[in-house]
Structure prediction request, 76 residues.
Amino acid sequence: VMGSAQSADDESFDGGLLEHPHYTKPQIWQGAEVPEVLRSGNHEQIAAWRKAQAELTTRTRRPDLWAAYNDDKKET
Prediction:
């Protein structure tokens, strides 16, 4: 059960891309730091960062999905 309609839009494999990285507190853990953009509170910039990270993850880990994603973008 999803709490809101947007939950389905933000699902892990929606739109042909793999998920973006997820972070939680503390701000620095085992030498890894939460990116500044995620701490900024700017929802537009956070959404852009998440999309860019999802694209990067898909492109590097699943070139087959990346190719299909780009083909779908060309058709629309």
Remarks:
- DSSP finds four helices and two strands in the chain.
- The chain has a mean pLDDT of 87.
- The beta strands are 28-29, 32-33.
